Amino acid sequence: MVDAAPMDAIDATRAKDRKDHAEDAAKESAKGSAKGSAKDRERSSRRGRRGRRGRRERVRGKADQPWWFALPALAVFGLFFLLPNLLNFVYPFTDWSAFHSKIGFVGLSNFSTILQDGSMARDIRITLEYAVLVAVFQNGFGLGLALLLERDTRFNRFFRAVFFLPVLISALAVGYLFRALLAQDGALNSVLSSLAGHHVDTPWLGSTTWTLVVVTLIHGWKWMGLAMLIYLAGLKSMPGDVLEAARIDGAGAWRTFWSIRFPLLAPAVTFNVTTALIGSMNTFDIVQATTAGGPGSETEVFNIYMFRIFGQGLYAQASAMSLVLFLIVVVLAVPVIVGLRRRENNQ
C-alpha cells in the first residue's frame, strides 16, 4: 500500500504553488491596469489640452479678423442708400430747388403746393389702376404658365427657362423693344397688314383708351416668369395624398384646382400679389421707355410726374411727392398683406 502522507504533502505543495502563481498574476494584472489607467488619463488629459488649445486658437483667429474689413461695404451702403433715404424725410420740408442758393425750412408748404396741383390726384388714380392691372396680368400669366409647365419634362424645363428670361432683361430694354414693335410703322402692324391684306397702322401706344392696358400687359409680361416660379414651387409642395383622395372621390380637374389646389397656393398668391402691387406702384422705367407718360398724360404714373417736377428744378417738391408715394404704398400695402395672410390662416 502506498503511504498517503507523502502524496498529501505533494498536493499541498502544488496547491500553494498555484495560489502563489495566481497571486503573482493578480499583482501583475493590477500593475498593468494601473499603468493602463495612468496612460488613459494622460491621453485624455492630452486631448483636453489640445481641445482647449484649439478653442483658444479659434477664438484668437476670430479676433485676428479685423471688423474694419467691412467698412468699404458699409460706407457704400450708408452713402448711397441709407443717407438718401434719411434725407428724403428732411428735404420735403425745405425750399431746396435749382432757384435757391441756400436751403431753408418751409414747413408743409411743399405738400400744400402739390395737393393744390390737379395733376397729383389724376396721377395717383392712374398709378392705382396701373398697379391693379399689373397684379392681375402678372399673376394670371404666371399661374397659367405654372399649370401648363408643371410636369417635369424636358420640354417643360426648357420653356420654364424661356419664360423666365424677360425677368433677367433690363426693364428699360424691354420698354424700348416694345416701343419699336408697337409703333405705327412697327413690326406688329406690318404683320397685321400682311395678314389682313390692307395697311394697318393702329396706334398701340398712342390711344387714350387702351394704351394704359397695353403698358400694363408689357409690365406683366416682363415679370410673369418670377410669378411662374413661385406658383410652381407652391404646386410642387402640395401633399400628394390630398390630391389622390380628391381623385378617388371623383373630383374633376377644375373642381380639384378650385377647391384644393388654389386654396393651398395661398402663400404663393400672397407673395406674388404683394410684390406685384408694390413693384408696379413704384414703376418708372417701363412707362418712361414706352410712352413717357403719354398720350395726353394718360399713362403718367406718379413716378413720371415726380420725375417731371424734379426736372423742373423743384427738388423739394419732388421729395415731398416721393414721401407721399411712400405713405400711399404703406397705407395700401399693409391692409392687402394682412388680408391675404388672414386668408392663408383660414384655409
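The above is record 1. Record 2 follows with the same two-line structure.
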Amino acid sequence: MVSPSAEPGSRWLILVIKPAAEPSRHRVAVWRELRRIGALSLGQGVWAVPEVPGLQGEQ
C-alpha cells in the first residue's frame, strides 16, 4: 500500500516503537502524530514513516 501523497523515489523510514501501556493517552498521542505525518502501520508497533523534515533515524 502506498500513501497517495508519496512521490516516486521518496524515502521511507521504518520505525519500531513500544510505548508504555499506561497511561493510554501517551500511546494515543503517538498514534495520532504518526497518522498526521502520513505513517502507515505495518503491524504491532512497526510503522513505515515518510521522510519528513525534523524526523531522522538513529545513525
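Residues 25 and 55 are 22 Å apart (CA to CA).
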